[in-house]
Structure formats: C-alpha cells, structure tokens
Design goal:
The structure holds 2 protein chains of 2 kinds. Chain A is an alpha+beta fold. Chain A has one helix at about 120-145; strands at about 5, 10-15, 15-30, 35-50, 70-80, 90-95, 100-105, 110-115. In chain A, strands 1, 2, 3, 4, 5, 6, 7 and 8 form an 8-stranded mixed beta sheet that branches. In chain B, α2 crosses α5. Residues about 1-15 and about 165-170 of chain B have low confidence and may be disordered. The chains are: A alpha+beta, B alpha+beta. At the A-B interface, β3, β4, β8 and α1 of A face α2, α3, β5, α6 and α7 of B.
C-alpha cells in the first residue's frame, strides 16, 4: 500500500473511494487515452484510494501511476478523471472524530492526479533546495581555502 | 526572385496584389527586398529589410496569430465548461431527467465536451503565460483549469513545467 504526496503523482483503478472537504464537478473532457470522461476537483485536504484494481493491471494514462489496491494519493488539491459521465453521489462522512468531509465512490475506470500538495510538503521541498544552496556555497568556500 | 511569398495566414483582403521578394542568395546581400503591386499594374510599395529583422517580423507575426488562436480556443472552451456546469446543476437539482441529460451530451457533445490533447509545441506555454498575465487581475488559475481552458492534457502541461525546473505547487 503506497501513498503519493507530490505534484503529478497519480493512481489508476477500476473503482476508487474519495474523501475530501470539497468535491466539485469540473468539466466533461474528451481525453486522448481515456475518451469521454468527467473531471472532478477535490480540494481542502483529501485522499483517493483504489478499491478495485485494473484488469489487466496495466497503466493506461501514466506509466508512473500506482495500481495496487489500497494505493492512494493525499494532497491539498487533486483531480479525478472518471468514465462515469452521470453525476457522482457525494455524501457527508465523518472522516475522523472531529472532522467531517465529503465522500464519494467511482465504479468505472478512474485516474486521480495531485495538482497542489500539502503546504508543509511544498515548504519542505523549498527548505531542501535552500539547504542544497547553502552546502554548495560552503563547498566553494572550502575550495577557496 | 521569390514570388508569392505568402507566409502568414491572413484574410485574402490583406493582399492588394502580387508580393515579390528577392532572396539574399540572388541579390548577394543580407537584405530582402519586397515589392507590392495591385493586380500587376503598378508597384505601390517597396521596402527592404535585413534578414535578422525579417526573422523577427515572422516570429512576431506567428506569436500574434498563435495568441489569437489560443484566445479563441480559450473562449470556446470556457463556454463549453459553463454549459456543462449548467447541465450538471440541472441534473443534480433534478430539473432534467437522466434521459434528457444523456441526450444533451449525446446529441451536442461540441457544446459540452472539451477536447484535450498532449501539448504539441512547448512554445505555446509561453504564449499561454502571456495571456494568463493579462487576465491575472480577474483571478489566478490553477494548472488543471489552465489545461482544460487551452485543451491541453494536464499531465503534459506539468511535464513542460517540470522540464523548466519550476517548483512543485501552483
């Protein structure tokens, strides 16, 4: 069971469970690989988990997508592309003891991809990049000595 | 002499007559000479440009025409998205039946469904960036919205950004 947190990371499955504070319909798309599909946008902390694997278990949209049952994407914002054209039933759910959120299920091919990761992950990446810069400067100072 | 030097797709009315240009190879200089005449009667306009200037003109003209194409595409897609949101709302509020909903999508897909495809020319992203800067005061768009509006597959748009080594996020 793997989890994704970064921009562009994705899952592909025949059925998925989606939890997010905001799940809204975005657009109908004619995707070059999937075909006619509907796109949903999930915002404000959410995750999507594969509840049924593809058969055969092969990537359709992206080669790096996770395909195993239980694999999920977790982020601030992500998009869901599903072959289900009719509207998804979104219901209120108790995600944890304190926090409510919206919940929905897809029953056809679904592709989910992260668009905006959690803010602490963005800041961690920026910090890492800054640290690399500092070590680079230190190296040049050492070389000068 | 290179006659019919028609590089730009402009309306026919733009061409007053025959346009001729002498290429640098034939004149032996780095300048291109243009002569414009109306119905082969009389030369009405003649000018000479350097090859480098000429390239700039072509680049600028391509930029302008491509920007225009992308702007029209964006308007078309925004109308489609607006239509599909309305249809979806009607369906969820049960003002239209399942059958009516499916019929609307089946009969007029061009009114509701946005075609997305992998990005063909990465240069388009620069032009899209310029368009977005102009609309920025209205509101910022996220990568998935930009992809839908400009008929680009979201993943291929992200690849262009990652290739340009932009930080993840918006």
């Amino acid at each position: 069971m793997a989890r994704c947190y970064l921009v562009g990371e994705s899952i592909e499955g025949l059925a998925t469970e989606i939890f997010a504070k905001k799940i809204v319909f975005n657009a109908y798309l004619n995707h070059p690989i999937i075909g006619r599909s509907s796109q949903y946008k999930c915002e404000r902390d959410g995750y999507a988990e594969i509840s049924k694997e593809l058969d055969p278990k092969k990537h359709r949209v992206k080669e790096t997508s996770l395909l195993n049952i239980g694999d999920c994407i977790e982020s601030e914002k992500f998009i869901i592309l599903t072959l289900e054209i009719s509207r998804l039933d979104v219901s209120k759910s108790t995600f944890s003891g304190r926090h409510n959120c919206n919940h929905t299920k897809t029953h056809k091919f679904t592709f989910g991809a992260i668009t905006v990761p959690f803010s602490h992950i963005i800041s961690a990446i920026i910090n890492k990049a800054e640290q690399r810069k500092i070590t680079g400067k230190e190296w040049t100072q050492k070389l000068k000595r | 002499m290179n006659s019919d030097l028609v590089i730009i797709d402009e309306p026919q009315s733009f061409y007053l007559g025959e346009i001729t240009a002498s290429a640098p190879e034939t004149t032996g200089s780095s300048a291109i000479e243009f002569k414009i005449s109306v119905n082969n009667m009389q030369e009405i306009f003649a000018f000479t440009v350097n090859v480098s200037e000429f390239k700039e003109i072509i680049r600028f003209t391509y930029y302008k025409s491509r920007k225009n194409e992308l702007q029209i595409l964006a308007i078309k897609n925004l109308i489609k998205i607006s239509n599909s949101l309305q249809l979806n709302l009607q369906f969820s509020e049960k003002t239209i039946s399942d059958q009516e909903f499916e019929e609307a999508l089946e009969k007029n897909p061009e009114h509701y469904i946005v075609d997305v495809r992998p990005i063909e020319d990465e240069g388009d992203v620069i032009i899209i960036g310029d368009i977005l800067q102009e609309v920025a005061p209205v509101g910022e768009l996220e990568s998935d919205q930009v992809a839908n509006i400009f008929s680009i597959e979201h993943d291929s748009l992200l690849k262009v950004f990652q290739h340009g080594k932009m930080l993840p996020g918006r």
